[in-house]
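## retry 2 of 3
previous attempt timed out at serialization; input unchanged, resubmitting
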Amino acid sequence: MDNKYSASGLVSAWVDISYKYTTRFGLTVAYGYKISEQDTPSLDIYGNDLYTISNNFYFSDNLLLGPEEKGYIYIYAKPYHLHEKEYYCTASLENCVPTGDERIQEGVNDIESTGDNEIVGGSSNGLPDSEVMTWIYSGTEMKYATSLGVDDSKPLALLISDASGSCSADFGIGIPIGALAVALSGGAVPPWAAGLSAGIYYTSSSSLDIYGGIKNHGEWENVGQDVSEYIYVGVSDYTYHVGTCDTQVPIGIYIESR
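## retry succeeded, writing output
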């Protein structure tokens, strides 16, 4: 989260994954034709139809940011980015030709957790590695979500929904796997993959407060000012199929307070 400006309030943000609900780490699957040969391929992307991990996890952490301060919340996990090509073979594997159909899979195959299923993670000042952030910005469109008056707060799920529709909230908390893959692959993963993300979501819930939220504290102990905060959420440049809807999903949860 980036509390961008000097004329700003003190802002808190928190993530809360509850043990009361089953948490799933979704699998994002993208299909296309000869996408490895294109700079801006056309992708047919499905989010959360499948998942890689499902359990009753819990995790909670928070940030308290004054004007012009940044911070982020993280977990320890093993994400993966898999690029597959389809081949048509006759007689033997030595007689194979590509059909042109290709598929990308992004997900998480391991979560570091304690014996009682607490996800291991934390929070830190600043933003993640600059190269990772460069690719997060590259694959992201900042969309206005809401304004928060002094002492106003809003659940994270509603912020996501306000920015890009209710179906994007169903996608859950985004993990910027595409941006990580581009940043860490040494050029092996193409730049257009930066807009791909996998979601952390609940199988069912009766509350929109479950993922966390943001609050504008205004001036507090001589830090910040009593002004409204305008909240923007970073969503993918791509449109995903999520359930019965088509929507832009969150790339991680990157939020700017302006």
